[in-house]
């Protein structure tokens, strides 16, 4: 089966000089949840931006490689075209429309949808997923808490009835039980509505629990990939990403070693 | 591989804090200064001095001032023309009313007048922000236009409102040759640029930038928005005021308020944005661009047009100039929204990586 | 080196003043072309020129001046703007190039012993204002009839607009009329409040000191506020076709000073049509030739050319004159009626003669009135009253010299 | 008293005319976060197009009806403004997605120069006439009540009505339609708007096109009042205090701001002006606006400026 | 373990048994509302010197608002804040900074256009003594002062291991590093109390470990008191001495981590059942 998304050896350069991605390839099969893991600055966000064509606003560009959606080259489509094709990105750092209320934010998310019934149903669905948003629906987004904004951003993306969602750090800033809920929602959408997810996450634990397949990035390259269950049992991953290397989980208080970061590639 | 800091290790923070940490840059700067002081006067034609070089120097000075306010402190100002006017008329009044007033103190005092005016019109910035402030600064512009037209005292009761100065001297040397005027303006510019550079890389400069980038956070780390904004207005309008005085005294000789119209304010804003907000070098690029381009076009457009077999009148040239000018501005912004200075920096960075592309 | 007398032409064909600046500039160019075509230059010296666009802006004017002043054979400058005149006044004294400012510029520059290089030939704002007042006195039946009357000056808020004020104030003091000053912010597109004030004060007369777009706007606002156009008098810069044409009927009855005729009848205009336009070398459209400002441009250029011719008489025929020699020519113009007729300027302007002390000659002007289609003369010639103006000029010049710590030209300088 | 009312009325109408120009600023700012300095140039450009085509069409077609000429010229000028909007989007805006306000402002200044040059190259730089049959002569009302009566300008009155209608229409558009909401979203965050599928290109063409038509109406009315020539672009400077007083993001604000500024500047010029030598209205308008801003930094009806940490 | 309330008596950490100092910051009955939204209702808690005090609670509970009240970004309608014995009803940002309270922000509030170095240097601005003129001339004392602060900042940069990015504009850094710079800026103020708003959001485990280490080092070595908002329960449980729990603007729990973790209200409102 051809993957829904096929990223083939892309290079990304910011500002004409800063080379950030150095040949990244990954595949996302239809109906899968794929996790993209890696430390700060590894290039996860950049990869997602490249897929959703949001690089331009950051003065970045894809200089090599190709990106295919269901076999179609998409590097030259606008982000709006991509949303039309069902690809929606939830941007890192929330990016709610500050002056719009939460509800207006959500409704704008349905810009590409024309059926009134569908929009209303989607809205109800989002409110059901995030009851907190319903309470705050009349507030301007700028005046809601960080976590509320994060929910709003995720909810907004769902309003577009997407078939492929690029989630950039969805768990960031969310309270533990909400994190869990978000992942449950992901799973729910995935199993019930066959929505495919590409998930950039720092919360490796959660990500590997819910994802079927994972890629690990380091300084702009994919350094390891495999089914999530395999990754979760890999010793290195366990030690550096899950914190359970060499037996049981270490207390944050005990970790004192300096510069232990493992590099798969120089 | 020539342009590299390879092997140039900084052994102290002082060395690292230099204005030009890279050796090649230091030599380049020295060469540039020598060139500006010695070679340019020898090479320039009599037309170049008054028409290109002197306006360039003065405008670069003004752009420097505007950049402190707009580029470093983030307070967009459309009233720079007014600060120039206050500087010019302030200096003029000191110059003609105080017996035997020497030129340099008169210009500095003009700057002080502009500074006071700048602080006054900077006060709203404590409450009004962004584009609202930008538009509100036009109040300063139109007020100054009016003030110097209407209040006779400022123009020494000249019936037409136009004033002039002559017999300029510095330490007994008459400023009558073009080269002398050039050196005079150049020295003003070099000294001010150095001081301004020091300011922006010191604590106060960081305060300005902090206010520009995120004022609430700046307040939380103990920066007083009022102090930061008003000092930016003060320093900026002082420099712009001096530039205004030079523009009036050295370049125009005789002037009326229209010489510092809102058009001038826009041009100054252009310079800093085209040159690069928050960059001292940017002001120079911007000033060069804005001063030289129209003159260049006026001089060479007809020739260029006749090459392709067209003849255009002065009106056509003027319109073509407007169009080219507008198009170039847009083009530069599209290529590099952060201005010529950033383009320059990117160029240098590429040079450092050379011969590798990244 | 070719024998070429170079005329730098500072003009503005763009910006708010373009509609008025353009015919003026066209007239200047066409006259030069005509002299070359008809006479082969001045005694064999070909006339060349280059235009430089100032946009009426002082700094651009200065740049143009600097660019063109070093050209070989440079003759004189006509900056076409009062602001630029102010800025150039000092520079020309250094560079020793004459500055001719017909009907504009510094009124005090009439005093040739103080302003060696400035030539407000044929008129200044003071003489212009004086003539309008003379006309008002005459139509009212004497100066004493002006007593208690209210005269408003609606003026361009710039040195240009402010120049006539001292004279008007002087006259107001002498004859007991009230002078109201109503400034209009440049360029003068928004005049509603000025005309509200006019309506409030109901002056007996409105003097209009405008330029460019300000003139037509003033007329439209006058119409909109119902101020009778018959009671409006413009200076000679407010009385040309572009000022009234698009107001049409609304400007009917409006009066303005006329320094010169308009129309294509004068011989010199015919010559231009024949030698320039008929050969397809006209600068502007043909039907603009002979319009008020066009003709004024022609006159200005004629004065420049005649100054060169006069200088050649003294310094050598067929030679290229230096600016200093041209200055001498300008100081010794003697264009009597016979000469004017011969040149084809008969009826276009009055005879004119200048001297070292008097850089203006005399001011003769008429009033013309717009009848909805064209300008028609509605008065006879007036001459400005030098009795009043001369002392003011002298006092002004003295103040200028004192401010600048300058000396008057020695008498000997005039002998040369 | 009569004169006071007359000044007041004059101010109100002048204010409405400013609103018309201010509206263009507000539209674009509200819908894309761009402070469009080129609005003045667009007014000039549109007016030039309209004036010249109204002149050329009878000459080309031989149909002498002024109504036909004006309508046709209006349509053509409208089409030209659409083309302008499209070109601006294609060549400028789309390359400046997600850039800072200052950069965008600067770009519009570049556009200003370009349009001024292009407009005058294509259409000439003399004074042209737009004659849409506006009545020019004044009527005197209430001459029984007040000495001298109150002078009412019919032309101004009609113009004021047109701008009021336009404002009403546009307010409804912003408040009631989902496109209106999308526009506000774009103004908040270009990138986020893109990420949820709002086609920036199309939105921008629409908005600039609407602003172009507003500029055309403004140009038509101002041009019919003042004649069409270069200085028409400077009415933008008179409209700026209106924009900030009413609030950059509020369509009704443009009207209210216009009225306040119009009345304020006329009254000040007529009653305070003579005391200080006159010519104060332009800076007075700005100072008045500034005064209001000190109380409400976002203008009377503008959206609150958000700064949160 | 009982917490001794008398400020004169030194207490011990209920979590680790570490010695804690006197009450340094005491928040009393703070209420804050925005229009109809009650962000905080009658909140009181104290912070002891040398302590790591965590604030947890679901999203929108009012944690960030609490910090905003402490450093004067918000003015609470009711209540008072006592710092080192001085009681305030309204805090002023500048004053707070001068008294030695520094903070980091949840939604990165870095100075985007400035380099990492300059960002951290701004943290030292309060200590700059030389005036404008001296700075312009950059002679003698001004230069020496600048160097002194530069050295202090370099120590922080070393400490946070961001040497490589010294001259990079922070806007170009990945999120996680920006968080570190934010911390660096706060540290540069050499505060007595450090308020951290979700410093570890958006980090992976390894980076969180680093961050914990930074926080604990600061806490140990300089004795800096830390108030920490964090959603990662592992972190909170491991490094904090006492925990306050907020929910809907109300305080629903306060005490040792273990104690809080087993509080049924807290489990219901925040932790969810799986923890
Ligand atoms: N706009 C930009 N301009 C220049 N460089 C950038 C820009 N955005 C990101 N980078 C650089 O690209 C690299 C990868 O950044 P990216 O944001 O993709 O990382 P990330 O894996 O998402 O990290 P994080 O987990 O911290 O979000 C970093 O080194 C960063 O400095
Ligand atoms: N300036 C403000 N105006 C209006 N409401 C506000 C403002 N600041 C905060 N609020 C509201 O107060 C409540 C508390 O917000 P706060 O940011 O303190 O939450 P938080 O506990 O930090 O949540 P999170 O964990 O999601 O960051 C939220 O519902 C928020 O919407
Ligand atoms: Mg990221
Ligand atoms: Mg928070």
Automatic annotation (TrEMBL), chain A:
Gene3D superfamilies the UniProt entry points to: P-loop containing nucleotide triphosphate hydrolases
SUPFAM superfamilies per UniProt: P-loop containing nucleoside triphosphate hydrolases (SSF52540)
Keyword Cell membrane annotated: yes
Domain ABC transporter per the UniProt entry, residue ranges: 5-244
One GO molecular-function entry: ATP hydrolysis activity
UniProt cross-references to PROSITE patterns, sorted A to Z: ABC_TRANSPORTER_2
Cited InterPro entries: AAA+_ATPase, ABC_transporter-like_ATP-bd, BCAA_Transport_ATP-bd_LivF, P-loop_NTPase
Key word Transport present: yes
GO BP annotations listed: L-amino acid transport
Domain of life according to the entry: Bacteria
SMART domains associated with the record: AAA
UniProt keywords, alphabetically: Amino-acid transport, ATP-binding, Cell membrane, Membrane, Nucleotide-binding, Transport
Protein family membership: Belongs to the ABC transporter superfamily.
Family matches, as PANTHER family: ABC TRANSPORTER SUBSTRATE-BINDING PROTEIN (PTHR43820:SF8), HIGH-AFFINITY BRANCHED-CHAIN AMINO ACID TRANSPORT ATP-BINDING PROTEIN LIVF (PTHR43820)
Protein name, entry field: ABC transporter ATP-binding protein
Taxonomic lineage: Bacteria, Pseudomonadati, Pseudomonadota, Betaproteobacteria, Burkholderiales
UniProtKB/TrEMBL annotation, chain B:
Gene Ontology terms for molecular function: branched-chain amino acid transmembrane transporter activity
Nucleotide-binding listed as a keyword: no
TM stretches of this protein: 27-44, 50-69, 76-95, 101-123, 130-149, 180-200, 230-254, 266-293, 300-317, 323-345
Cell compartments where the protein resides: Cell membrane
Membrane topology, as annotated: Multi-pass membrane protein
GO CC aspect terms: plasma membrane
A Pfam family per the record: BPD_transp_2
Protein name: Branched-chain amino acid ABC transporter permease
Organism: Ramlibacter cellulosilyticus
Phylogenetic placement of the source organism: Bacteria, Pseudomonadati, Pseudomonadota, Betaproteobacteria, Burkholderiales
From TrEMBL, chain D:
Membrane-crossing segments per the record: 12-29, 41-61, 67-92, 104-128, 157-174, 203-222, 242-263, 275-295
Main location: membrane
One GO BP annotation of this record: amino acid transport
Location(s), subcellular: Cell membrane
Keyword Transmembrane (UniProt): yes
InterPro entries tied to this protein: ABC_transp_permease, BCAA_transport_permease
Membrane topology: Multi-pass membrane protein
Pfam families per the UniProt record, alphabetical: BPD_transp_2
Keywords: Amino-acid transport, Cell membrane, Membrane, Transmembrane, Transmembrane helix, Transport
GO molecular function terms attached to this record: transmembrane transporter activity
GO CC list: plasma membrane
Family: Belongs to the binding-protein-dependent transport system permease family. LivHM subfamily.
PANTHER family: ABC TRANSPORTER PERMEASE PROTEIN, BRANCHED-CHAIN AMINO ACID TRANSPORT SYSTEM PERMEASE PROTEIN LIVH
Protein name: Branched-chain amino acid ABC transporter permease
Organism, scientific name: Ramlibacter cellulosilyticus
Source lineage: Bacteria, Pseudomonadati, Pseudomonadota, Betaproteobacteria, Burkholderiales
Automatic annotation (TrEMBL), chain E:
One Pfam family here: BCA_ABC_TP_C
InterPro entries in the record: AAA+_ATPase (IPR003593), ABC_AA/LPS_Transport (IPR051120), ABC_transporter-like_ATP-bd (IPR003439), BCA_ABC_TP_C (IPR032823), P-loop_NTPase (IPR027417)
Annotated ABC transporter domain residues: 25-273
A GO MF term: ATP hydrolysis activity
GO cellular component entries: plasma membrane
Matching Gene3D superfamilies: P-loop containing nucleotide triphosphate hydrolases
Organism superkingdom: Bacteria
Alphabetical keyword list: ATP-binding, Cell membrane, Membrane, Nucleotide-binding, Transport
Protein name: ABC transporter ATP-binding protein
Originating species: Ramlibacter cellulosilyticus
């Amino acid at each position: 089966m051809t993957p829904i998304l096929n990223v083939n050896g892309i290079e990304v350069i910011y500002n004409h000089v800063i080379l950030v991605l150095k040949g990244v390839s990954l595949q996302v099969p239809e109906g899968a949840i794929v996790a993209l893991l890696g430390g700060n600055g590894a290039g996860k966000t950049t990869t997602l931006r490249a897929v959703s064509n949001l690089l331009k606003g950051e003065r970045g560009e894809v200089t090599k490689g190709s990106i295919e959606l269901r076999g179609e080259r998409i590097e030259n489509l606008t982000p709006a075209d991509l949303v039309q094709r069902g690809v929606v990105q939830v941007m890192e750092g929330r990016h709610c429309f500050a002056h719009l209320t939460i509800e207006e934010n959500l409704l704008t998310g349905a810009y590409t949808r024309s059926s009134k019934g569908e929009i209303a149903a989607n809205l109800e669905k989002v409110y059901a997923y995030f009851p907190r948003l319903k309470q705050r629906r009349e507030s301007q987004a700028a005046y809601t808490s960080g976590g509320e904004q994060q929910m709003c951003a995720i909810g907004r993306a769902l309003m577009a009835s997407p078939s492929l969602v690029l989630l950039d750090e969805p768990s960031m800033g969310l309270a533990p039980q909400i994190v869990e809920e978000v992942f449950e929602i992901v799973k729910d959408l995935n199993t019930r509505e066959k929505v495919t997810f590409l998930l950039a996450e720092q919360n490796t634990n959660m990500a590997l629990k819910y994802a079927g397949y994972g890629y690990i990035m380091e300084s702009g390259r994919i350094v390891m990939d495999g089914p999530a269950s395999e990754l979760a049992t890999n010793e290195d991953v366990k030690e550096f990403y899950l914190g359970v290397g060499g037996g049981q989980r270490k207390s944050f208080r005990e970790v004192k070693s300096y510069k232990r970061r493992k590099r798969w590639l120089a | 591989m020539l342009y590299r800091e390879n092997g140039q290790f900084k052994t102290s923070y002082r060395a690292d804090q230099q204005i030009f940490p890279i050796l090649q840059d230091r030599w380049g700067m020295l060469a540039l200064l020598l060139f500006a002081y010695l070679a340019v006067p020898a090479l320039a034609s009599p037309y170049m001095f008054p028409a290109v070089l002197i306006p360039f120097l003065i405008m670069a000075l003004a752009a420097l001032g505007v950049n402190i306010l707009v580029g470093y402190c983030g307070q967009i100002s459309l009233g720079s023309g007014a600060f120039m006017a206050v500087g010019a008329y302030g200096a003029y009044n000191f110059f003609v009313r105080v017996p035997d007033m020497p030129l340099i103190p008169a210009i500095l005092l003009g700057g002080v007048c502009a500074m006071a005016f700048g602080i006054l019109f900077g006060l709203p910035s404590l409450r009004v922000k962004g584009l609202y402030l930008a538009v509100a600064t036009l109040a300063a512009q139109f007020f100054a236009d009016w003030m110097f037209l209407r209040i006779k005292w400022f123009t020494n009761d000249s019936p037409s409102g136009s004033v002039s100065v002559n017999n300029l001297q510095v330490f007994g040397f008459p400023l009558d040759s073009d080269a002398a005027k050039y050196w005079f303006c150049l020295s003003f510019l070099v000294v001010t640029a150095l001081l301004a550079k020091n300011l922006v890389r010191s604590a106060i400069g960081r305060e300005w930038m902090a206010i520009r980038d995120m004022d609430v956070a700046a307040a939380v780390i103990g920066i007083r928005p009022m102090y930061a904004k008003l000092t930016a207005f003060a320093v900026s309008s002082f420099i712009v005021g001096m530039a205004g005085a030079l523009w009036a005294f050295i370049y125009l000789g005789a002037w009326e308020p229209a010489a510092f119209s809102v058009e001038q304010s826009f041009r100054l804003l252009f310079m800093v944005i085209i040159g690069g907000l928050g960059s001292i070098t940017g002001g120079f690029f911007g000033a060069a661009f804005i001063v030289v381009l129209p003159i260049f076009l006026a001089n060479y457009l007809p020739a260029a047009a006749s090459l392709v077999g067209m003849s255009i009148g002065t009106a056509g040239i003027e319109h073509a100039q407007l169009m080219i000018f507008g198009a170039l501005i847009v083009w530069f912004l599209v290529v590099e929204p952060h201005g010529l200075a950033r383009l320059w920096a990117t160029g240098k960075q590429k040079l450092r990586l050379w011969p590798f592309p990244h | 080196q070719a024998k070429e007398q170079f005329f730098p032409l500072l003009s503005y064909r763009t910006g708010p003043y373009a509609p008025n600046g353009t015919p003026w500039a066209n007239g200047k160019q066409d006259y030069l072309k005509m002299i070359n075509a008809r006479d082969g230059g001045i005694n064999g010296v070909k006339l060349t020129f280059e235009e430089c666009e100032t946009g009426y802006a002082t700094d651009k004017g200065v740049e143009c001046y600097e660019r063109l002043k070093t050209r070989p054979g440079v003759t004189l400058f006509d900056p076409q703007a009062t602001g630029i005149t102010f800025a150039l006044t000092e520079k020309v004294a250094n560079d020793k190039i004459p500055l001719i400012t017909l009907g504009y510029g510094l009124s005090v520059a009439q005093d040739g012993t103080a302003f060696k290089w400035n030539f407000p030939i044929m008129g200044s704002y003071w003489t212009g204002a004086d003539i309008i007042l003379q006309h008002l006195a005459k139509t009212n039946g004497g100066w004493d009839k002006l007593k208690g009357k209210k005269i408003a000056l609606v003026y361009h808020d710039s040195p240009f607009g402010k120049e006539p004020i001292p004279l008007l104030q002087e006259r107001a003091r002498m004859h007991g009329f009230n002078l109201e000053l109503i400034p209009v912010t440049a360029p003068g597109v928004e005049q509603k409040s000025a005309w509200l004030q006019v309506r409030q004060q109901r002056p007996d007369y409105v003097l209009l000191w405008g330029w460019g777009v300000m003139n037509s706007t003033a007329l439209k606002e006058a119409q909109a506020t119902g101020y009778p156009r018959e009671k409006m008098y413009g200076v000679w810069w407010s009385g040309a076709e572009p000022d009234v044409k698009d107001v049409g009927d609304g400007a009917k009855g409006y009066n303005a000073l006329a320094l010169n005729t308009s129309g294509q009848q004068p011989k010199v205009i015919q010559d231009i049509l024949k030698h320039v336009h008929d050969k397809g070398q006209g600068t502007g459209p043909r039907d603009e030739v002979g319009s008020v400002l066009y003709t004024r441009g022609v006159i200005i250029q004629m004065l420049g050319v005649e100054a060169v011719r006069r200088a050649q008489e003294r310094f050598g025929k067929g030679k290229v004159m230096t600016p200093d020699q041209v200055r001498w020519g300008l100081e010794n113009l003697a264009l009597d009626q016979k000469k004017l007729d011969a040149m084809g300027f008969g009826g276009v302007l009055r005879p004119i003669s200048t001297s070292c002390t008097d850089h203006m000659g005399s001011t003769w002007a008429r009033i013309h009135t717009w009848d909805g289609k064209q300008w028609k003369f509605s008065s006879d010639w007036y001459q400005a009253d030098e009795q009043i103006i001369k002392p003011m000029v002298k006092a002004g010049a003295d103040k200028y010299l004192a401010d600048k710590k300058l000396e008057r030209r020695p008498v000997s300088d005039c002998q040369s | 008293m009569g004169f006071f009312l007359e000044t007041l009325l004059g101010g109100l109408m002048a204010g409405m005319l400013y609103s018309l120009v201010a509206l263009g600023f507000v539209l674009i700012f509200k819908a894309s976060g761009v402070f469009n300095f080129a609005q003045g140039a667009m007014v000039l450009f549109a007016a030039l197009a309209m004036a010249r085509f109204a002149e050329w069409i009878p000459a080309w077609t031989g149909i002498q009806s002024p109504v036909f000429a004006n309508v046709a010229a209006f349509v053509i000028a409208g089409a030209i403004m659409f083309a302008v909007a499209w070109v601006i989007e294609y060549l400028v805006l789309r390359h400046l997605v997600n850039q800072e306000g200052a950069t965008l402002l600067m770009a519009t200044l570049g556009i200003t120069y370009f349009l001024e040059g292009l407009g005058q190259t294509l259409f000439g730089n003399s004074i042209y006439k737009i004659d849409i049959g506006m009545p020019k002569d004044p009527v005197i009302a209430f001459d029984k009540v007040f000495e001298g009566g109150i002078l009412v300008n019919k032309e101004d009155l009609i113009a004021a009505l047109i701008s009021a209608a336009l404002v009403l229409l546009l307010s409804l558009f912003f408040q009631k339609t989902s496109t209106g909401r999308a526009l506000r979203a774009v103004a908040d965050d270009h990138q986020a708007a893109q990420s949820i599928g709002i086609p920036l290109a199309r939105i921008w063409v629409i908005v600039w096109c609407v602003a172009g038509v507003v500029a055309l109406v403004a140009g038509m009315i101002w041009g019919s009042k003042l004649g069409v020539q270069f200085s028409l672009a400077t009415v933008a400077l008179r409209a700026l205090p209106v924009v900030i007083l009413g609030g950059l993001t509020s369509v009704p604000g443009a009207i209210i701001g216009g009225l306040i500024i119009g009345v304020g500047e006329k009254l000040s010029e007529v009653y305070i002006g003579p005391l200080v030598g006159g010519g104060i209205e332009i800076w007075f308008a700005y100072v008045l606006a500034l005064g209001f801003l000190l109380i409400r930094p976002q203008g009377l009806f503008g959206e609150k400026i958000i700064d949160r940490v | 373990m009982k917490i001794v309330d008398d400020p004169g008596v030194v207490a011990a950490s209920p979590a680790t048994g570490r010695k804690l100092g006197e009450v340094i910051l005491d928040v009393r009955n703070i209420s804050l509302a925005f229009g109809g939204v009650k962000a905080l209702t009658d909140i009181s808690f104290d912070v002891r010197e040398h302590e790591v005090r965590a604030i947890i609670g679901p999203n929108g509970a009012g944690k960030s608002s609490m910090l905003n009240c402490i450093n004067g970004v918000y003015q609470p309608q009711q209540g008072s804040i006592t710092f080192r014995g001085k009681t305030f009803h309204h805090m002023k940002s500048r004053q707070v900074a001068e008294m030695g309270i520094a903070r980091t922000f949840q939604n990165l509030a870095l100075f985007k256009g400035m380099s990492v170095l300059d960002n951290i240097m701004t943290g030292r601005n309060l200590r700059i003594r030389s005036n404008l003129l001296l700075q312009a001339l950059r002679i003698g004392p001004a230069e020496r002062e600048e160097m002194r602060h530069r050295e202090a900042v370099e120590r922080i940069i070393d400490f946070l291991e961001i040497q490589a990015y010294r001259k990079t504009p922070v806007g170009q850094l990945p999120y996680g590093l920006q968080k570190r710079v934010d911390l660096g800026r706060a540290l540069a103020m050499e505060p007595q109390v450090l308020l951290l708003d979700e410093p570890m959001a958006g980090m992976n485990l390894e980076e969180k470990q680093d961050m914990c280490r930074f926080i604990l080092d600061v806490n140990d070595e300089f004795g800096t008191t830390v108030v920490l908002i964090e959603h990662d329960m592992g972190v909170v449980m491991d490094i904090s001495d006492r925990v306050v729990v907020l929910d809907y603007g109300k305080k629903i729990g306060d005490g040792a981590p273990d104690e809080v973790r087993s509080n049924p209200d807290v489990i219901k409102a925040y932790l969810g059942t799986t923890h």
